Amino acid sequence: MQIIAAVAECERDLLIERTQSGIARAKATGKQFGRPPTLNKEERAKIIKKLAMGISVSELAREFKTTRRTVMRVRAYYAFYSDDKTFKSSPNSF
Known about the structure:
Elements: H1 2-28, H2 41-52, H3 57-63, H4 68-81
Helix pairs in contact: 2-4, 3-4
């Protein structure tokens, strides 16, 4: 029984090694991992401009066919990484 367990452990190690090398090769060729973003860069820029004009989060979510939370996440990201003080007033940005 111990021999079977040792062989199974060896096979598992080989499987993990092959998986990790495949992931590394895919990353080296520029493969994107994870879920694709719902909004592209142009759409995010439009959301920021419209938020600055005073359009509500709910209205923007309907316009861009996404959730309110996604619009708030765009606003929070912009507030965190921008020098613009327009969106920094909300303490609960995240």
